[in-house]
Structures are given as C-alpha cells and as structure tokens.
Design goal:
By secondary structure, the chain is of the alpha+beta class. It has a domain of about 140 residues: Aminopeptidase (3-Layer(aba) Sandwich), CATH 3.40.630.30. It is built from 4 helices and 8 strands. Strands 1-2-3-4-5-6-8-7 form an 8-stranded mixed beta sheet, with helices on both faces. α1 packs across α2. The termini are close together. InterPro entries: Acyl_CoA_acyltransferase (IPR016181), GNAT_dom (IPR000182), Ribosomal_N-acetyltransferase (IPR051908). Pfam families: Acetyltransf_3. Keywords: Acyltransferase, Transferase.
C-alpha cells in the first residue's frame, strides 16, 4: 500500500473502508473541533457512518475521481496532556473534494484533530496532493474553499501559493447560520515547492 513520509513521525496514506473503526474513533476525538469547518456529511457519528463516508470516496477513486488520505502520527499525546498512544494514530487527513482529469481541475480539503496542530502536517500533505495533481496527472488548476473566518485554513492556502479569487457571500451553512466562503486557487504554472507523492 502507498505511504508517504510527511515528517519523521507522520505518514500519509489512503483511507479505505476497512479502516472505518479507526476513522470513527478519530472522529470522536475531532468532531467538535472540525464540525464548524467541514461539510456536515463528513462528521460521522458512528462506525456505519464512517464506513459510508470512506466507501463513497473509494467508489469515486475507482472512477478516477475524488480521493481521501489519512495522516498517521506516531506517539500522539492524550488530549488532556497525559497518556496517549505510542503507535501510529490517525489524527487527520486531506482529500480531493473534487478531482476531474477531464476538466483538468481539482479541489483540495483537509481536517485535523487538535493534538496534531502546529506541526505543518496539513501543508506538507497538501503539497503532496498538488504534486500528484499537477506533476503526475497533468491537471491545470487546484482550488481551496473555506469559511472566510477560518484563519488557519486561509493560512494553508497562502502557504501553498494560492491566490484568493473572491468570496461567496453566505454560501457556507452551519446550523441555522450562513457564513461567507473564500475561493482560492493555484495554477500548475504558478505552483512553488513541488514535492513528490511516492
């Protein structure tokens, strides 16, 4: 199975339906932290929901469409500052929310639980997705969409060399509230710092 080293202690590899239990446990740790920033269907509540999410991506991948990858971190500390797990733990991931070789475009998304923030994992993983999209598959354009008030997400888009193209007014609904959505992009000809996905 493909795996890429993000850091000496973190790896990126595909998330597959057989990992539904692990994904559900990860969602239990991450759910409330990521809920405001991701689509509601992604924040699953049980193993069946986790399996359905991963199966949806597996089916899309089989059609050369959307894909999802997990980030595993060695020696993850406990959320209360004690304990934790000594082995690799799923702490987040990245995905091609949209992927169309025919159109030459993709959209990248991400999520991360609090214990793994501040390590550069998302930026490193997204650079690998951009390398795959542009260098390996020959896509022309990659997009990034996030809530306009999600400063951490906007900062990743900037680090990836993306340009903000505009704001979709009140296009992101959470509960009964509508938020503005930013649209960022980078073209293959503009990309900086290529990293191989191997």
């Amino acid at each position: 199975m493909f795996a890429a080293q993000l850091t000496p202690t973190a790896t990126l590899r595909p998330l597959e339906p057989h990992q539904a239990g692990e994904f559900a446990a990860h969602m239990d740790r991450a759910r409330e932290h990521i809920r405001p920033w991701v689509g509601p269907s992604f924040v699953t509540d049980d193993v069946a929901g986790a399996r359905a999410t991963l199966q949806k991506y597996a089916d899309a991948t089989a059609r050369d469409g959307n894909r999802i990858f997990g980030i595993w971190l060695d020696g993850t500390p406990g959320t209360d500052g004690t304990g934790g797990t000594p082995g690799p733990t799923l702490v987040g991931g990245v995905m091609f929310v949209e992927f169309s070789a025919a159109a030459g475009t993709c959209e990248i998304g991400c999520w991360l639980e609090p214990s793994a923030e501040g390590r550069g994992l998302i930026t490193a993983a997204c650079r690998m997705l951009l390398a795959y999209a542009f260098d390996e598959r020959g896509l022309h354009r990659a997009e990034w969409r996030c809530r306009a008030d999600n400063a951490r997400s906007s900062a990743v888009a900037e680090r990836l060399g993306m340009t903000i193209e505009g704001v979709l007014r009140e296009a992101w609904k959470v509960g009964d509230t509508f938020y503005d959505k930013q649209v960022w992009s980078v073209l293959a000809t503009e990309r900086r710092e290529p990293h191989a996905l191997s």
